[in-house]
Structures are given as structure tokens and as C-alpha cells.
């Protein structure tokens, strides 16, 4: 008899703590983005902020992936959560003292990006220890629903905090959001599995190379990584410069930005709910349609001057990005062997987060230099072509039978 995911005690405990930390994540993202735009009114500066917050995953993510395959994941999650909370608290104090200029924001964005890169690698490898293999796709979908529910609620909270209490208070709330997660992580009871066989005998770079070779030699994993790269860079890139788009295209302020972010959250929640009932065999066709649709939505967005239609398009882009994110993560999680999970999933995380960062930077630079219409149409068409190539003749492998922790 199949075990319900709602009987997985450790997973539900972890989920309770994640509710707060993911709210903090979205409050932080919107607050930093709004502060940068308010200070500079430059798409390039805004794109650089997004780049520094997310691109570190590409550089240090694989290193963290090797560490995750060697160490106690619960303890590592506690340490990184404390660091993330302290970074937000210190930045809050600097903003309160009016010491946070655009360069200071970039410095903290880099620190947050590195810490988030570590936590991303840990989280992606920790969740499989909390649920059975059969419940893994459901766990990924539920995580996506939670993440994007926060994406809907978090920006609204951020908008209200920024408008009525100020940026410093908003960042202090972010720091407080990590406290429940830290408590929950300390309460988890896990049996540590064997990590990399002979891990102490090999260097980090040898282990990184082994993980990279494993991913590149799997046709399915390689295509899935290509797909998430396209979705993140082109499908999500626009979402990273929304503070500028809302102001430049629609002449609106922080409240409109909050609703635009919430529309993205609603689209992602719908995608997560839909995917929670999907079988693995239906994921690849769904991802193909989603990523191609992302490119087409970018083209449509370039021609609309209606804020209401813009809300719908942003919701659609987020829906498509979530379909691709959940689909690729689910298929890789059930395809990769346990010994390589940390490294392969850190590679997925690096591409997913780093792709969004690079996309935000490209959208920021090109919209400022050549304008929104040319940038959006070009990015949209590139997205369609690469998505079609990445999903041609992609098939699923036989399911893996892997030992679990006892």
C-alpha cells in the first residue's frame, strides 16, 4: 500500500519551518529590488543586483554540492539559515542608519547569493531523506506550491511594510522569518546515509568532475538541464527586472509591483497544483509546451501597454517556469543515483538560479540600451527555438531501485 506523503513526519515538520523562510525570501527579493530601483532608476543596476543574488550558484554551487554529499545536511542547513538571517538583520540596521547605498546593496546581494547557493544545494539533497521515493514527485510539487504561495503573499507583505514601515523594518522581518526554520531543523531526526564512497580520499575537484561526467553522460539529465537553463534565463529573466518594467512600461509604483509579483505567484501555484496529479510520463510534453509558451508570452508582452493584460502575461510566464522547474527537478531526482544526488542537484540548482540571474542581467542591460520591444521579441524567439531542440525525442529511463537510510 502506498504511503501518503502526509504521513511523512519529518517532511511535514520541515515544511512548517519552510513556510516562514520562503515568505522571508520573497519579502527580501522585492525589498532589495525596490530599494535599488528607487536609488538608481537604472535597469542595469537592477539586473546587476539580481545577477549577484543568484549567479553565485553557478560558481560555488558545485562546490557546495560536493560538500553536501560528505556532511551532515541538517547541521549544514542550520548554519546557512543562521547566516541568511544575520545578513538580513545587519542590512536592516544599515538601512535604518541610512548607510545602504547602491554599492552596499550589491555587496549584500553577493553575500546573500552565496549563502542561498549553499542552502539550495543542502535543501535539494535533504528533502529526499525526508520522503520515500514514491512520494518524491508529490514532495517537489508541494514544495513548489509552498514556494509560490509565498511568492503571492510575500510581495503583498513587502509592499505594505515598505509603504507604511519602511525598508529597514521589511528587512528585519526577513531576518525573523528564519527563526522558525532553524528551530524546525534542530528538531528533525534523521539517519545519515553513506555519502560519497571514499569521500575523504578524493579532492573536491575530482568529485565535481565525477558528478559533471555523470550528468553529461545521461541523455535525459543533460536535456533536462538544458531545458531548465532556457526556462530560467529567458522565461524568468523578465521577472527579475519587474521593478523597472512596472515603472517604465506602466508608470506605476510599489503597490503595482506587489500585485505583479503576486500574479506571478498565483500562476506558479496553479502550476504546482496541476503537476501534483501528473505522472512522470506526462511531464516532458508539459515542459515542452510550457517553455515554448514562455517565449511566445514574451513576444506578446512586448506589444501590450495594458497593465491588466501584463498581470495575466506575468502570471502565465510564472506558470510556465514552474512547470519546467518542477518537472525537471522531479525527473532528475528519481533518475539520479544516491551517491551523486548532491552534486547533480546542485548543478540543477546552479543552472536554475544562475540562469535566472544571467537572464535578469541580460534583460536589464538590453532593455536599457535597445528598449523593451526588441529585447523581449529576441529573447522570446530564442527561447522557442532552444526549447524545441532540447525536448525532441526525449524519453524516460527505467526507474531506479535505490537503498534508503535505515
UniProtKB/TrEMBL annotation:
One of its GO terms (cellular component) is plasma membrane. CDD domains: MFS_MefA_like (cd06173). The chain crosses the membrane at residues 12-32, 44-64, 76-97, 103-119, 140-162, 168-188, 220-239, 259-278, 285-303, 309-332, 344-366, 372-390. Gene3D superfamilies: MFS general substrate transporter like domains. It is a multi-pass membrane protein. Residues 1-395 form the Major facilitator superfamily (MFS) profile domain. InterPro entries: MFS_dom (IPR020846), MFS_trans_sf (IPR036259), TM_effector (IPR010290). PROSITE patterns: MFS. PANTHER family: INTEGRAL MEMBRANE EFFLUX PROTEIN-RELATED (PTHR23513), MAJOR FACILITATOR SUPERFAMILY ASSOCIATED DOMAIN-CONTAINING PROTEIN (PTHR23513:SF6). This is MFS transporter.
